[in-house]
């Protein structure tokens, strides 16, 4: 920790202090991710159309990620796939956060409510996650909506657990007892004493959930559930690329895989640095 | 913890994807690779769907459309598609076309040494008829053995095409048939079953007592792999023959040659010909389509789409244009073939029929209905995906919006009565036409007349064709059903389907492998059809 503090202010951006640097890093990464989402929404059908005269081309200036077996530009396909992944990630994170807020606060009300919530969490955690997603998506009739809803509905468990533990800890604090003795209702305490303490957990939890949701979406589409094989989704792109590896078309797997990795890492770094800013105990790391 | 796990997962996806080709090269273990003698052949060919799920049982579909290897059939097709005797020595049909008498060879034994008699033949067909497998035997009333080497087939319909059924069902032994027959088949074909390692391979050995020509290859190992894996295995010298994807046509491998076999395996789009009235099938699936029920839409697509572009692009050049689904067969009608790729003509057909683009979005409308439909394709079939996507892009030019959607067959089955589907057909049996276009063939539990086509003129030609025992008359009527100068199921007439192309099947094989004159390749291909002619040439 001490060495980190000494080395932290060297190198680039000397003029900034640690907090500014962290914020700078977060904003850069956020802009990158936002750029992916925004540009992916501008992809129209024409950009993704096939061009059989230029199929299986190695990466070049015209096609930075090469082209696939139908002559589609892999850069645009990857962008489209990542955009979809991030949107699904955002949806999953926000739904999960809302659910964990509700369930977390519910568990703080009383013993019965608490055991119902933990029973629900245990129930969902006991089913392998990928299996749960596939089950829900098939139950909803498959398709893109099936996958999106399934990913969105299956990520709330761990955050709910964290929130519940946090609440349990907060509830033992003296001021809660005092407030209770002053005659405040449980709901009032939950709203005014507990919720504010949970905000950093929610923010962090939401961001850290992104990579999870994205990877799950990629895995499910990789396995062939949900989307049609001609649509751009990162899992579909990767599973399709496997068919061409023995023909030596390495770029089909490499660039989309690398992009996925970069997106995941970006979210991860945002989460980590956000933690530094929000958590007073770690603010000087 | 969670964080590092997700990074690890992402990394694994990436590394795993890149490394997998290496794995297939090194980890694939195939029995018999230690020492390959010249009269052994290791092949990875799909022959329709690859490994048969229910085993090597002709009753449940093994060998239908392709050489069953282990079993033998009463008749066979030669390399021109003409019928020749195999187990049968002679056959005759009664005046009314109802009773068929077939005499069989008296020198045939099953691989277990028991003699093959007329009883076995009758048993095979009766069982197959009851089982209702992939071969349609609804016209067969019953088969009876009148003496040791004579079988009598009694039909309930005078279909002259019945003889084609006798050429696709391998004969099974009555004494050794039970529900597990497919796992341990005994037949009378050129190859004896030795071993089946499920999910991996089946090993066959030449039967020394086989009544026909002796095969050059004494041992035949068929390994089950995905076609891209098969290519990698062929390149590393583990297998001698592999079916490969069309996109691999340009690859070069030392000591191996790539052979493309033309086929009659056509890919076409089914157009539901009835409008959507809200009616449902017995299973509760929607019926009819308001867009494709308009003949103008179907005709415009048939005329406007350039098939050669589809072949060159979507099929990587590995195929030929197809217009009626049976162009290359004796019952195909040359008159029914149209000049395609004519966008102007297609647009004219649409506007004449009242399809106009009124809201300026590039898609035509008529009476408030947009010229738009979903096109389903089997998600596992790459060439269908490519065709669907390519057609949808070409159709935009005509002002028709086709939305391709990949799905599993289970899902397609629920939608096929109301939604166009990319199907594959290619049979040496003209009965296929009857099942596809005869109005009464419609049966929601199968793909028969899935478009609910009904044209009395076409019906009468089809009926005349299927009941005609004279081959020429039959072919003439099949052709008239496609186009008689006024109507028909072909693009010139009702444009019921849009046939696009027939596929070439692509194989990579040892340089010294001589596969003789291959037979006509049906749906799913039949490369082993002439296995008895195969040999290795001396170097």
From TrEMBL, chain A:
Presence of keyword DNA-binding: no
Chain ranges passing through the membrane: 23-43, 79-105, 117-138, 144-163, 194-215, 248-267
Keyword annotations of the record: Cell membrane, Membrane, Transmembrane, Transmembrane helix, Transport
BP GO annotations: transmembrane transport
Predominant location category: membrane
GO cellular component, one term: plasma membrane
UniProt cross-references to Gene3D superfamilies, sorted A to Z: MetI-like (1.10.3720.10)
CDD domains the record matches: TM_PBP2
Topology with respect to the bilayer: Multi-pass membrane protein
Pfam families: BPD_transp_1
ABC transmembrane type-1 domain: residues covered: 82-271
Compartments in which it is found: Cell membrane
Xref: SUPFAM superfamilies: MetI-like (SSF161098)
Family: Belongs to the binding-protein-dependent transport system permease family.
Protein known as: Peptide/nickel transport system permease protein
From TrEMBL, chain B:
PROSITE patterns, A to Z: PROKAR_LIPOPROTEIN
Gene Ontology CC terms, in alphabetical order: ATP-binding cassette (ABC) transporter complex; periplasmic space
Key word Acetylation present: no
Residue ranges of domain Solute-binding protein family in the record: 83-429
Molecular functions (GO terms): peptide transmembrane transporter activity
InterPro entries per the UniProt record, alphabetical: Peptide/Ni-bd, SBP_5, SBP_5_dom
GO BP term, pick one: peptide transport
Family affiliation: Belongs to the bacterial solute-binding protein 5 family.
Protein name: Peptide/nickel transport system substrate-binding protein
């Amino acid at each position: 920790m001490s060495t980190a503090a000494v080395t932290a202010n060297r190198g680039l951006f000397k003029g900034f202090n640690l907090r500014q640097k962290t914020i700078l890093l977060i904003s850069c990464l956020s802009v990158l991710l936002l750029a992916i989402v925004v540009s992916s929404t501008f992809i129209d059908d024409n950009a993704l159309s096939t061009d059989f005269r230029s199929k299986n081309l190695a990466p070049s200036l015209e096609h930075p990620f090469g082209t696939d077996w139908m002559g589609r530009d892999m850069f645009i396909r990857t962008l489209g796939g990542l955009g979809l992944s991030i949107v699904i990630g955002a949806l999953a994170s926000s739904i999960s956060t809302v659910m964990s807020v509700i369930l977390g606060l519910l568990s703080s009300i009383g013993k019965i409510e608490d055991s119902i919530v933990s029973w629900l969490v245990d129930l969902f955690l006991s089913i392998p996650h990928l299996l749960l997603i596939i089950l829900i998506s098939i139950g909803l009739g498959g398709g893109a909506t099936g996958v999106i809803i399934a990913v969105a509905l299956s990520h709330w468990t761990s955050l709910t657990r964290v929130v519940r533990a946090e609440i349990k800890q907060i509830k033992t604090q003296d001021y809660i007892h005092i407030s209770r003795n002053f005659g405040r209702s449980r709901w009032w305490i939950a709203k005014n004493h507990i919720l504010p303490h949970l905000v950093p957990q929610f923010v962090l939890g939401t961001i850290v959930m992104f990579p999870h949701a994205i990877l799950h979406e990629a895995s499910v589409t990789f396995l062939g559930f949900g989307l049609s094989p001609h649509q751009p989704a990162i899992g579909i792109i990767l599973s399709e690329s496997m068919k061409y590896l023995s023909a030596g078309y390495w770029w089909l797997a490499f660039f989309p895989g690398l992009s996925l990795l970069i997106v995941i890492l970006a979210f991860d770094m945002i989460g980590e640095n956000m933690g530094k800013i929000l958590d007073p105990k770690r603010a000087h790391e | 913890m969670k964080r590092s796990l997700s990074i690890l997962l992402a990394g694994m996806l990436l590394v795993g994807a890149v490394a997998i080709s290496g794995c297939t090269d090194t980890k694939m273990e195939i029995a018999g690779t230690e020492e390959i003698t010249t009269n052994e052949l290791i092949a990875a060919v799909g022959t329709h769907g690859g490994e048969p799920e229910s085993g090597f049982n002709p009753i449940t579909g093994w060998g239908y459309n392709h050489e069953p290897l282990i079993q033998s059939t009463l008749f066979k097709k030669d390399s021109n598609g003409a019928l020749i005797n195999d187990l049968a020595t002679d056959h005759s049909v009664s005046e009314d076309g109802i009773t068929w008498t077939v005499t069989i060879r008296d020198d045939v034994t099953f691989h277990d040494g028991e003699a093959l008699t007329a009883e076995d033949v009758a048993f095979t067909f009766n069982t197959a008829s009851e089982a209702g497998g992939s071969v349609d035997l609804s016209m067969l009333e019953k088969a009876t053995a009148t003496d040791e080497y004579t079988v009598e087939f009694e039909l309930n319909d005078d279909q002259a095409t019945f003889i084609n059924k006798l050429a696709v069902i391998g004969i099974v032994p009555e004494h050794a048939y039970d529900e597990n027959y497919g796992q341990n088949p005994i037949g009378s074909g050129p190859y004896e079953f030795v071993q089946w390692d499920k999910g991996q391979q089946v090993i066959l050995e030449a039967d020394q007592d086989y009544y026909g020509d002796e095969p050059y290859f004494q041992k035949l190992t068929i390994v089950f792999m995905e076609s891209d894996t098969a290519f990698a295995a062929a390149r590393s010298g583990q297998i001698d023959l592999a079916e490969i994807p069309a996109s691999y046509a340009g690859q070069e491998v030392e000591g191996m040659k790539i052979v493309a076999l033309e086929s009659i395996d056509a890919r076409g789009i089914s157009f539901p010909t009835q409008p959507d009235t809200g009616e449902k099938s017995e299973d509760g699936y929607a019926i009819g389509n308001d867009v494709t029920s308009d003949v103008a839409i179907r005709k415009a697509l048939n005329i406007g789409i350039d098939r050669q572009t589809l072949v060159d692009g979507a099929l990587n050049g590995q195929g030929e244009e197809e217009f009626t689904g049976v162009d290359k067969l004796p019952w195909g009608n040359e008159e029914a073939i149209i000049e395609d790729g004519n966008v102007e003509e297609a647009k004219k057909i649409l506007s004449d029929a009242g399809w106009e683009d009124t809201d300026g979005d590039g898609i035509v409308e008529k009476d408030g209905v947009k010229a738009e439909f979903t096109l389903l394709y089997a998600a596992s079939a790459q060439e269908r995906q490519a065709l669907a996507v390519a057609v949808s892009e070409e159709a935009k030019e005509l002002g028709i919006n086709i939305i391709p959607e990949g799905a599993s067959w289970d899902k397609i089955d629920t939608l096929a009565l109301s939604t166009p589907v990319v199907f594959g057909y290619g049979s040496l049996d003209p009965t296929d036409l009857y099942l596809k276009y005869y109005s009464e063939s419609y049966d929601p539990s199968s793909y028969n007349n899935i478009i609910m086509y009904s044209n009395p003129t076409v019906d009468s030609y089809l009926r005349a064709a299927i009941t005609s025992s004279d081959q020429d008359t039959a072919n003439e009527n099949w052709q008239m059903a496609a186009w008689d100068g006024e109507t028909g199921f072909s693009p010139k007439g009702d444009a019921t389907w849009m046939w696009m192309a027939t596929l070439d099947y692509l194989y990579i094989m040892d340089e010294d492998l001589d596969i003789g004159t291959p037979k006509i390749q049906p749906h799913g291909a039949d490369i082993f059809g002439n296995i008895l002619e195969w040999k290795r040439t001396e170097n």
